[in-house]
Amino acid sequence: MELPDLGEHCTEKTCNRLDFLPLKCDACAQLFCRDHISYKEHSCPSAYKKDVQVPVCPLCNVPVPFKRGDPPDIAVGLHIDNDCKSDYGKNRRKVFANKCSSKGCKTKEIVPVKCSDCGKNFCLKHRHPSDHACIGKEEAMRAKRLNALSRSSQNTSSSSFRNFQGTMSEDEALARALQASLQDDANQRRTAQSVPRLSRENCNLS
After folding, report:
1. pTM of the model
2. String of b and e for 162-200 (b: at least 16 CB within 10 Å)?
3. Which positions ≥6 away from 69 have C-beta within 8 Å?
4. Which residue, 24, 25, 75, is CA-closest to 47?
5. pLDDT digit string (tens) for 66-107?
6. How buried is residue 13: exposed, middle or buried, by Cβ count under 10 Å (0-12/13-18/19+)?
7. pLDDT digit string (tens) for 127-144?
8. DSSP string, 131-149
């Protein structure tokens, strides 16, 4: 005698068994019989949330850490794009060389996508000015001018130091500069001491 109101049917389509004590999968929250409760037996789509195994890169055989709850395939793909030490990973990084300038974004594109306003390169997701908080043409030009001025000032200071240094080493040039400054101080003291004596002699003569 069957009691259809008691128990639950197994969610597995190939089974559909009526089980009086069904088991609930802790990943997908579906009910199964004891034969199909394991992740493998019912091909659980949410098994990655409970699976704590660390995926290994198929190219360089390095364990790839990933955030729990995220699909491991995404972490492996990011590893191949950014950190993989294999020849394939390096060649792929050369192809994907155009890094997004948006803060916090690590996406790289094959083709450069430059903003028409600020001139910076972005990924397809942040290519519109409203998506990357574009500073506009005027601010971009101002920033370029400031960078050019700072670079030119650094180059002039370094070139003047090189001209002063000549063929000497840095330590010798610094010692020579220190000696020259000490001599200048001594000369200034001598002149300061000799000026009052001259004024007294002039007063006596008068």
Report:
1. 0.30
2. eeeeeeeeeeebeeeeeeeeeeeeeeeeeeeeeeeeeee
3. 49
4. 25
5. 777 677 788 888 887 777 887 666 666 666 778 888 888 888
6. exposed
7. 888 888 888 878 878 877
8. TTT--HHHHHHHHHHHHHH
